[in-house]
Amino acid sequence: MHIAHINYGDVLKSAFADPKEAELYVTSVEQISSNSNIAAVILHQAARLVWLSDRVEEVAKGRPALQIFFFIIAAEAVAKLFYNYQGESESKVYVRKFFQELCTDEHRTLLSRAVKRDDIFMTAEECVNFLYKIRCDVAHEGRYFHLLLPESTIPKDKSLSQLDSHGLYYDDVTIDPYISSSDLRQIIVEGSVRASRLLLSPEGTI
Question: What angle, rounded to 10 degrees, do the helices at 105-112 and 181-200 form?
Answer without folding.
Answer: 160
